[in-house]
Amino acid sequence: MTDSHLTRRALLRYGAYGAGAAALAGTAASWDRLTGADIPGRDDGSLVVATLGPAYGPEAIRTLREGFAELHPDIKLRINAVQAVDWSDFFAKILTQVAAGTAPDLVYVATEGVQLFAQRLGVALDKWVKRDAAELKEYFTDVHPSLVESMMYEGSLYQLPVEFNAADMYFNRQVLRRAGADFPPADWTRDDFTALLRDMKRSGGSRFTPYFWTNRLWGGVVPWLFANDTNLLAESKAPGGDWLWNGFYPTAQRKGRGGGFRWTTPQASHDRVEEVYDYLASLIQDGLCTRPEGGNGQNLIGVFSTGRVGVTPAGGFWAGGLHLAGMERDGFDVQYFPRWRTQRMQYGAAGYALLRTSTMQDEAWEFIKYAARKDTLERLFATNQTTPARRSLLTAGRYAKTGPAHWPVFYDTLDRFPDTGPIPAPPQVAEVEQVLLKHTGTALASARSVRPALRRMQGDLEKAMERDV
Amino acid sequence: MTNTRIPPARAERPAVRAAPAPQGPSARDRGTRLLATLFLTPTIVGIVIFTVVPIVGSVILSLFHWNVIDSPSYAGLSNYGEVFGDETVLVSFRNTLVFMVFAVALQLLVALALALTINGRMPVWLRSVFRSAFFFPLVLSAASISVVMKYLFNQDFGVINWALGFVGIAPVPWLTSENAAMATVVLVYVWQQFGFSFLLFVGGLNNIPKEIHEAAALDGATGLRKHLTVTLPLLSPTLLVASVVGIINALQVFEQPYVLTNGGPGDSTRTVVMVIYETAFEQLRFGEASAVGVLLFVLIMAVTALQFRLSRRFVHYQ
């Protein structure tokens, strides 16, 4: 028979264990622990602004914060730079914060997310814009109506654009000289473009590819679709918006404007879309163009600045990017995208969206106005990492150090081609973009793969557009 | 006349001892159990919070439609219906299985070959150098490695095609051809991951007693035959561990295809975890993403169970 009783020694030992555990637990409980409340600005009445991290460095954030504090010392501001590889990654992180109940008050949103945020999370700025119309007159006078229209959704304005980038064509000057080619004129055509690529190829050697582009929504296949007078999705304008156009823009500039863009029926299987893919596939087959890779073009700066690429689509952001990469101001230049059936250009713009969940909407509006001020943007975009939405900021002085020589192209894109518009970005943009990238990769494998890939793209786009976000 | 042994008479047989009456655990046993429970509690709590709860949460979420913004709405099994009807999901499962087969097989082969080579006659200091070198990629971030590899494998400007050009080989579309992209992703993955299996094999080889190899040598076994008949059977427990861990990791591959090819060209390198990420965080369909996650969980459990079942036949313990 076993003794089921604890010995005195065992009892003492377990008593000691218990006492030790209790002491540890007590000590742990008494420590100051980090909680969500310890995050600076969390629940302390701060106005929280989420920006795309890589676009806004520490210097820019300090500029924003200090300038706003001078104007509004009574409003605490916290800028949360969210690190993300691209806009869709950034939106995913913001939505995660929304799901966690820690949504910011304001989010920096590009065209890719304007309609998604407007439809599901955003607050229309109409009442504040109407209220502060006198104060905003100067802003709207300085900003092209096309950019403003791209920030509208179903008749209401959801953001004040502060920056944009059109897909222009960049040239490596050294490559142009090597090919004995002249800098193309503003009205150059798709055939001129092809001929230029052939000249570059002849003089470039086997390790040289004349044309490089990245497979993405902005600057990928879409500018070619625009140039061929078509689009991935049928485009129209929502009604409304008269309150804004009549209030801020002269008759000539408000002609044809509406309440924002609508992107509806997919048209990937249209003849003109197929034409574009056939053309790009032929460039690849002839060795004039790289097979497009996914990504954000980060690897492009290196190959362009070292002359292994001659031409590529990029926006005003590259003036600063190439300068940082060590290119001299006369080492590169920029021209409009070539004409095909039209010379309509595409762009993406960005500004701050106010979230419905914000309890500080009036304060948030003050920040939106502050962020769109001329002096703010002047300081914020001093390094030419983007194209400011304000026309008056594009001066010879701004581009004296970085280049390019034809810097007026950046803003004149909007003036010269009034039908220039934003990339197609309905609320279902994430899935639309994924479908586009996926099938573009397949379509350009060979000339024969274009049609079947576009048929599949059409089917997938139809499914994507049927889904409610 | 045969000499048959007569069994002893029943009475002469030694009496079978009656089994002792069952007794409760001794005080010492109880103390040990209590102590063990005490030490295991933090781990168990951690597993419950960080593994069991998310799994249960995913299963529950897979029965709802939820887009983060609105409240979840009950969907029953319709998410599973959507998933099975989605060609991208089915392709991603196929890709993941193909990836798993090639990645794990190559990883184990490379690791075993290198472990056998290093375990041969080699100075100790050199062994340490190789061990560190082979293990090094494993401690690096998969995403960082993939970014670098993306540059190396670039068709037009990559160092690899540049080097191949010297020996007259035309540029290979490593990441932009449907046929080559998966192979490239497998290569990058194996390059990073084989160090883990390699270390396991080195440890396993060191545990095989020298006497057994010496006995095999006396019996005339040399080279490959010795490895096939002696080393591999004795290394089979290690092989089991390496393959189980390898398969579980390979079925959850994400970073390499995401960074290198973003699932393309087409869907040729899209994996299940990529689909889960895209469906949830880009397309805001958390219910469907959870359904895919549950299916992946079931797949991993089934494959692992099958491995352990097969291990009874193929794994030999000394």
Automatic annotation (TrEMBL), chain A:
Membrane-crossing residue ranges in chain numbering: none
Gene3D superfamilies: Periplasmic binding protein-like II
Keyword hit for Signal: yes
Keywords linked to the UniProt accession: Signal, Transport
Record-level GO cellular component terms: cell envelope
Subcellular location: Cell envelope
Family as reported in the entry's similarity comment: Belongs to the bacterial solute-binding protein 1 family.
Record-given protein name: ABC-type glycerol-3-phosphate transport system substrate-binding protein
Organism: Streptomyces collinus
UniProtKB/TrEMBL annotation, chain B:
Signal sequence extent: none
Low complexity: compositionally biased ranges: 16-25
GO biological process: transmembrane transport
Segments forming domain ABC transmembrane type-1: 93-307
InterPro entries assigned to the protein according to its UniProt record, in alphabetical order: ABC_transporter_permease, MetI-like, MetI-like_sf
Renumbered residue ranges of the record's region Disordered: 1-28
Record keyword GTP-binding present: no
Principal localisation: membrane
Annotated family: Belongs to the binding-protein-dependent transport system permease family.
Protein name listed in UniProt: Multiple sugar transport system permease protein
Species name: Streptomyces collinus
